[in-house]
Amino acid sequence: MNSTEICYLSARPLGQLIQRKEVSPVEVIAAHLSRIESLEPKLNSFITLLPDQAMAAARQAEKEIREGRYRGPLHGIPLGLKDLYYTEGIRTTSGSKIFDAFVPNFDSTVAAKLKEAGALLIGKLNMHPLAYGPTGENGEYGDMHNPWNPALIAGGSSGGCGSAAASGECTLTMGSDTGGSIRIPSALCGLVGFKPTYGRLSRNGLTPLAWSQDHVGPIVRTVEDCALVMNAVAGYDPSDPTSINLPVPDYTRSLTGEIRGVRVGVPKEYFDVLIDSEVKESVLKAIDRLGELGAVISEVSWPMYRYCTAISSAIQMGEATAYHSHLIRTHGSGIYPPVRLRLEAGFFVSASDYVQAQRARSLFYRESLDLLKKVDLLAGPTVPVTAFEIGRTRVNVGNKTAGAIGLLTQYTRPFNLNGFPAITVPCGFSDAGLPIGLQLAGRPLEEETVLRTADAYERSTDWHHRRPPV
Amino acid sequence: MEDPFMAETFWLSKEAFLKIAEVSGLDTTDRHMEELYSFVQQMLPGLKDVEELDLTGMEPFMPPLSAKGGSK
């Protein structure tokens, strides 16, 4: 097996090779470091690369496995963390030069759990500064580039996760998602991105953007890898006041390939907003495929969908500005200008605006629960367009244009507001060869239904086998 | 739906804008205040869509599953 093949294996088969001692973790890390060295000038996925540390950890993993101390399916698997996960002794910039020298003295809960599971941290991944933007542009550490066409955005804010996982620089990556920041880069880079139920994964040790909408989750190449990561990181954490204290299932057991009878609703409001015709066609074909696999497809109505951007924006702006208020006042001119603008604008959201938005959120939550009594899942596009040129603030959709931020987040924000689990899986490519994502969302804590359906769809297609030209 | 990031409605006077900026601790002499004023003018009206909703009986949202021992 050559090094490129190693870099494109998903975690399950790679872990099996490692367990059987047919491939060494040292060999795996060496292959990835070599690939990173060759691709980074084009992609800029990493802020901090950890070659010596990763290689030392790989030697340790090799020793443990040789001595019969195999930890499980993530042992020896390369991992990249978005650079807002605190990592003990390793700088954590949150994508901003202001924190260029910040070195946490503890691991975030998720980082610690992945370390315990034997995953090998290979580096800290680039991101939109302070996670406040969906394009993956960063004027300080450099923009992230889409492996399918490096002139285009990787999406954000977890753009480094998207470019690294899609290009074979990392097997596993972990992102965060406040308005779509896991699912957007996943869709634009042809990956699987999963935002579990709010509270299922601990937020302890992650730089917040907006506490009540921040989620943690994997950006990987297959649904099975999502399930493997979930098994390692899900669960109650007393350090996170919003953590859910309920038993965690074995998520891989839900991947049966069987979705007969699963009721899938397609909100008609999804197609009342701007959407690229190629994206729409691919998503509708994917939904038809779910029907062919035995799911029961129906159109549903989600009247409050049209209010999601207003509700989530008021909450996000209020919380982000509150969290960063000291930074804004003391280091305002040092903040990446587009992010500074959004942060400072948050001072103009009144307390009344914020509370009214939270009241509207309660109404939206109730409506979402009612909707998901009629169906088991909601299906639709993840992002209404394919990746576009870096630097664009307005995007053409048919004969209209729209602001990039609102457009990129129009399908993802609802599930940050209600906290329901949502996944994106590749469901096609545009004529220009750019990936398109299908989003599936389920009831709170019903991750298994979401993963099972996404996996069944993935098994029936070959989109996830395609490799970017980079 | 109108894009809240590019709405055209102007609603905040320059004087009120500067006052809020000042009490928020921003440097109102900073050259980028004009850009911020324009951005605020464009963005904030979109947030007012919430006012169309009947929120009678609604309390602010609390994550329903997150309490210790929270149940489904």
Report on this model:
The complex is a heterodimer of chains A (470) and B (72). With 470 residues, chain A is an alpha/beta fold. In chain A, 38% of the residues lie in helices and 16% in strands. Chain A contains 15 helices and 15 strands. Chain A has helices at 3-8, 11-19, 25-43, 51-66, 109-116, 159-167, 183-189, 223-233, 277-292, 308-331, 337-345, 351-374, 404-408, 414-417, 447-459; strands spanning 46-49, 78-82, 120-125, 145-146, 149-153, 172-177, 192-195, 215-220, 263-267, 296-300, 377-381, 394-397, 400-403, 422-429, 435-442. Chain A has an eleven-stranded mixed β-sheet with strand order 1-3-2-6-8-7-14-15-11-9-10. The radius of gyration of chain A is 20 Å and the shape is globular. Chain A starts with a helix and ends in an 11-residue tail after the last helix. The mean pLDDT of chain A is 98. Chain B is mainly alpha-helical. Helix content of chain B is 35%, strand content 0%. Chain B is built from two helices and no strands. Chain B has helices spanning 14-23, 33-47. Chain B is elongated, with a radius of gyration of 18 Å. Mean pLDDT of chain B is 82; it is low at 1-8 and 67-72.
Provide the β-strand percentage band of chain B. under 5%
How widely separated are the two ends of chain A?
Answer: 20 Å
Structural class category of chain A: alpha/beta
Largest interface (CB within 8 Å) is between: A-B, 55 and 44 residues
Give, in order, the helices and strands of chain B: HH
Strand sequence of the main sheet of chain A, in spatial order? 1-3-2-6-8-7-14-15-11-9-10
Uncertain segments of chain A are none
Largest sheet of chain A: 11 strands, mixed
Largest sheet: number of strands, sense, barrel closure of chain B: none
Helix percentage range of chain B = 25-40%
Helix- and strand-based class of chain B?
Answer: mainly alpha
Mean pLDDT of chain B: 82
Instruction: Name the shape of chain B in a single word.
Output: elongated
> Which spans of chain B have pLDDT < 50 for at least 5 consecutive residues?
1-8, 67-72
Amount of helix of chain A: 25-40%
What distance separates the N and C termini of chain B?
34 Å
- Annotation field: number of helices of chain B: 2
Work out the helix count of chain A.
15
Give the overall silhouette of chain A.
Answer: globular
